[in-house]
Amino acid sequence: MSTPAGPGALQFPPGFLWGTATASYQIEGAFDEDGRGPSIWDTFSHTPGKVQDGDTGDVAVDHYHRYRDDVALMGELGVHAYRFSVAWPRIVPAASGAVEQRGLDFYSRLVDELLGKGIAPVATLYHWDLPQWLEDADGWGNRDTAYRFAEYAAEVARVLGDRVHTWTTLNEPWCSAFLGYGSGVHAPGRTETETSLRAAHHLNLAHGLALSAIAPHVSADSQKSVTLNLHHVRPATDSPADIDAARRVDAVANRVFLGPMLSGEYPADLFADTEAITDWGFVQEGDLAAISATPVTLLGINYYNPTLVRAAEGERAADAFDGHGNGAGTPWPGCEGVEFVQQPGPYTAMGWPVDESGLYDLLQRVSKDYPSLPLAITENGSAWEDEVSADGEVHDPQRVDYLSRHLSAAHRAIADGVDLRGYFVWSLLDNFEWAYGYSKRFGIVRVDYDTQQRTPKDSFKLYQQVVAQNALPQA
Ligand code: IFM
């Protein structure tokens, strides 16, 4: 039952799923406890120069030990669902392939704690923490990793299948493939253009094999999902060259995953754009059928900002202003000659523009391309230079504004016919922001990294109201 909303509030449909999201390596810590093996992010963060200030996820926000308190916070927030990820190296720590029961037990306890508070568990099976033993055998460059992923997924589903509301195979495979193996700004830090495309295919394969592998173990009414960080790509002008630049980026950012996963085919233009890099011979007979064999019933979309591109003049190499492109290699194979254009501000602490119109447009586009597929926003949020005020509170008006703008865009999309079922704010807690370490705070709850004290920010209070009223209040 929702509490009544004030005049002018933007009311969401009954049953709209309000949630919050985190990921294992970003919050858990306990990097060597209960048999957990190393992941590529342990190796990467312990390599000097890879992560800002030498930060690591060794302790993170100690969620592994504090999960009960964190679930209690979610209870206070009132959310209906919690999107977390399972750390593969906790479940299959070493090359022997033996399953670590203590790892499974942790997630089982977490799920029970959530259910005890009436919060639906939404489990992501892979949020970037590949076991190091798999990377030692070429990681996502190796087709075999997809099969190992399906085996691991089945183990998790066997234990949690009766209690998990939504199963998500992968989080943002674009980042895994193109930041991990292309630009090298993410673990494992490789800068091999051909491998990045191969990795994208193996991630697609992993998704399909895993959905089929978990099917016998999960309850029939659970949702089967994948979360993509779809880029809303806009051409800077309506010149044919700029429109073609946007098409190229759309192919390797979005359709490289949407095509195989949802329609069982790769886009022909992607093959043409990348023909100088690979002949895609790693796509074997039967792969596309395997990728799309078990249908996705809910598509998760992560949205932070739109992407503006144009055809570069002269010799300018691809130069990304979206925080993704500054490694030694390119995260944009097939986009040679495309220039990423800085958009007007305001900018978050990540340097990302605040533009909720991109969310509206993206939802419209996906809904038109896949009219019968329910959607959820599985991440949306912003990092700011938060401070603790003299009153001990964290007043974060910019995050409140960001949240309000994006919720209002989501509301407008629903009013205009998009089948949007839920929204998950990123993130519940300040946490380890990958190559930025702890320097960027995305949480609606502040974490003091010295004491691990949690302090709900003003944005937490706004979101609490939104959830309670099933509506965005108007100021
Ligand atoms: O923190 C990340 C998250 O792990 C994946 N999506 C984007 C977030 C903000 O960069």
From TrEMBL:
Binding positions (substrate): 26, 127, 171, 304, 426, 433-434
SUPFAM superfamilies: (Trans)glycosidases
Keywords annotated in UniProt: Carbohydrate metabolism, Cellulose degradation, Glycosidase, Hydrolase, Polysaccharide degradation
Active site: 172, 379
UniProt xrefs under NCBIfam families: BGL
Family per record: Belongs to the glycosyl hydrolase 1 family.
Name of this protein: Beta-glucosidase
Source species: Motilibacter peucedani
